[in-house]
Amino acid sequence: MRLRKKEGNRVKHTMTYRTRRRLHKLGVFCGCFFGILLVVWVCWFFWLGRFIVYSGNEAKLDFGWVSHEADAVVAVPPQEATVAIHFNEGEDTVETSTELAPISGFYVTVDDMIENMDLVTETIQQLPKDSAVMLDLKSVVGNFYYSTKIEGATVSDKVDAAAVDKLIKTVTQGDYYAIAKIPAFRDRLFGLENDSNGYTLAHSSGGYMWSDEGGCYWMNPTTDGATGYLISIVKELQSLGFDEVVFTDFSFPPTDDIFFEGDRSQAIINAASTMVNTCSTDSFAVSFASGDSAFPLPAGRSRLYLTGVEADNVQTKADSVNLTDKQIHLVFLTDTNDTRFDTFNVIRPITAAEVTG
């Protein structure tokens, strides 16, 4: 500033060119600085949203999921075209009315495979002919336990995928009824890869994908992206020789904190029907595991695997299921050897198998 002249009783101040230049540069610097801060804050805000876990009416940051099954490798892409997804419609619809047979057998968890694969294989080889053998083949995090060829899929490093591949051949090529068990709409990696296309459920407050207490995202059952992904998995398992696939988590998450416009029950009915009509054949079944005896089982080659049922409540649960032939379409998935389950189809843990040494 400098004093130029006095006019009447006022002193007129003028600003030098150099001062104006300095103030201009300062303004530009401040504008750029605060602009960068704003961009960084916005990016941080949306990135941090991935780690927000909603539970009830609370929200918290949880970075713990990073270490949960984080060790994985990208699956080797298929040498041939990816698994085709064929929707049975019109005249070429595959006949799915062929009746299923009663089953009884055992399931193998990923922990069983990790602990002692040799013992698992030996036990299976001593099972009676035509026993059902169910293998756990995918985690809710999204990692596969076998050498999948689905493009972009990851294989868990927590289990020897080559050993699982060998076990799959033992089961599918032997005298067993081979069942693959996989989670359906609960999949963290799928959510992370599809957070911008609407395939996953968002929190009711808007913006963020909803995640459960385990840090897993859930797919939107009404989207073609979600059902198409499941269909590609089923088609691959079918090509590996399995007789049946069983979906767990085929539902909406048990919360009101998600944004969904529509009838949830009808959405599950439609999704289940799509899976059965598209993937089941006269020699392949698509089934669902649930703790809800009212699960809407579609018509066709499909079963309902009831979970979490106590032995003294078997008959009551069976009576509550609305199925035309419970001796065929109802299976109890239990963790005990209690004989009260033997009236119906039952699948028990492989550790409960009684075989000779």
Q: Indicate the multimeric state.
A: single chain
The chain-level structural class is alpha/beta
Poorly predicted segments: 1-5, 53-57, 63-68, 76-97
Give helix and strand order, one letter per element, not per position. EEHEEEEHEEHEHEHEEHEEHHEE
How is this structure best described in words?
Helix content is 31%, strand content 20%. It has 357 residues and is an alpha/beta fold. The strands form 5 sheets. It has an 8-stranded parallel beta barrel, surrounded by 4 helices. Strands 1-2 form a two-stranded antiparallel ribbon. Strands 3-4 form a two-stranded antiparallel ribbon. The longest helix has 32 residues, at 17-48. The termini are far apart. The model is unreliable at 1-5, 53-57, 63-68 and 76-97 (pLDDT under 50).
Brief digest:
It is built from 8 helices and 16 strands. It is α/β, with parallel strands linked by helices and 357 residues long.
